[in-house]
Specification:
eight-stranded mixed beta sheet, alpha+beta
């Protein structure tokens, strides 16, 4: 491989150190590649830190191959927790979902039936059972059907990224935080040769992995590649709690709620996201999120709004991941996806394998960058 040579390992620049970039780089590093992590900010503190961070496949039923990839992502997390240790970042406590009007409830139960037919673990409880067994702080009505997905989880993304990058650095990887990529240089044959950084340095590399999240289209432009992306901003609020009143991620009517460690709760809502482009003050969006959450978990009404951020989700134009090589630019790879939290470990493993072996992984067949023409 000019993927390095017989005498030296491949040198790979991973651009963007969120859940996807950290996972790709960790997998490459433990297989002998020389990895340079490059991030314009700090590892794990971009979109990864401002995600709902829900590990699931129940919300990925639009295409069976995408569902299967996400199921593989869930399995890859269980393996990762065994490999690097689960503390501080891995919370496999399941996920709850319910609705408050008939059409939404019918759709929820129909999806649960489809998932069962695909051998996905689903339990349907009543609100009363949920309050008794799982979440006593909820106000969900006693007779309402609540779907429980016991194999789902949430992840503390920043802690996960820190663990992966830390282990990779111990294995010889280099970390360049607070450093943006200014250009990617290619040789006469069009293959990757260099990466120019905002600190004035230029790195000789064999390959680059574009895992730059919302900036992925910009990075792709350095190799004259057009990567079309959706514009989908989302607002996330952290609520400080003396005692966290919920134990797992949940989608309640109008609001998503999950714990965020010992002293905070994360809130998100697609309905509130729709107000972002109206110019509404982020502080007002945070207040609306807290008000919605209070109707589900009354204790949250008295808690303090700690942090709010509007982040741009990294979603390729058709909604599905863009993962793998771009044949017109030898040595250039993409790892760009919404649901980067769920997919990080499995994409990291599959893409690292492709980079080092040159063999295409069948599970990524529907998600190749080549579906977006140059």
């Amino acid at each position: 491989m000019r993927i390095g040579s017989v005498n030296r390992p491949a040198r790979v620049a991973v651009i963007g150190v969120g859940a996807l970039g950290a996972s790709v780089g960790w997998n490459l590093s433990r297989q002998g590649a020389k990895v340079v992590f490059i991030d314009a900010g700090q590892p794990g503190e971009g979109v990864t830190n401002w995600s709902f961070s829900w590990v699931n496949a129940s919300n990925k039923t639009a295409r069976k191959s995408y569902f299967d990839l996400n199921v593989a992502g869930m399995a890859a997390y269980r393996e990762l927790a065994r490999t690097i240790g689960p503390d501080l970042w891995w919370y496999p406590s399941g996920h709850l979902r319910w609705a408050d009007e008939p059409a939404a409830e019918a759709k929820l139960l129909k999806t649960a039936g489809l998932l069962r037919s695909w051998d996905y673990r689903v339990e349907v409880c009543t609100g009363a059972e949920v309050r008794r067994r799982l979440e006593p702080a909820l106000t969900v009505p006693g007779e309402v059907p609540v779907v429980f997905y016991p194999d789902e989880a949430w992840v503390h993304g920043r802690h996960l990224v820190g663990r992966l990058v830390g282990q990779a650095v111990v294995s010889g990887a280099e970390l360049r935080p607070g450093t943006a990529v200014c250009d990617i240089g290619t040789g006469a044959d069009g293959s990757i040769r260099t990466v120019a950084l905002s600190d004035g340095s230029r790195l000789d590399v064999d390959m680059v992995v574009n895992a730059a999240g919302p900036k992925s289209s910009h990075v792709a432009g350095f190799v004259t590649r057009h990567l079309p992306m959706r514009r989908e901003p989302g607002v996330v609020t952290r609520i400080g709690c003396a005692q966290v009143p919920v134990h797992r991620a949940m989608h309640a009517p109008h609001i998503e709620i999950r714990p965020d460690g010992d002293a905070s709760v994360v809130l998100h809502s697609r309905e509130i996201d729709a107000l972002i482009d109206t110019g509404e003050d982020p502080a007002e969006l945070a207040r609306l999120l807290q008000e919605s959450a209070r109707h589900v978990v009354p204790e949250l009404g008295n808690s303090r709004i700690a942090q709010t951020r509007i982040a741009h989700r990294p979603i390729p134009a058709d909604g599905f991941p863009s993962v793998g090589a771009v044949s017109s630019v030898p040595g250039y790879y993409e790892a760009v996806s919404h649901s980067g939290i769920t997919l990080g470990p499995v994409i990291g493993r599959l893409l690292a394998s492709e980079i080092l072996s040159g063999k295409r992984e069948e599970m990524l067949a529907d998600f190749r960058p080549e579906r977006f023409p140059l």
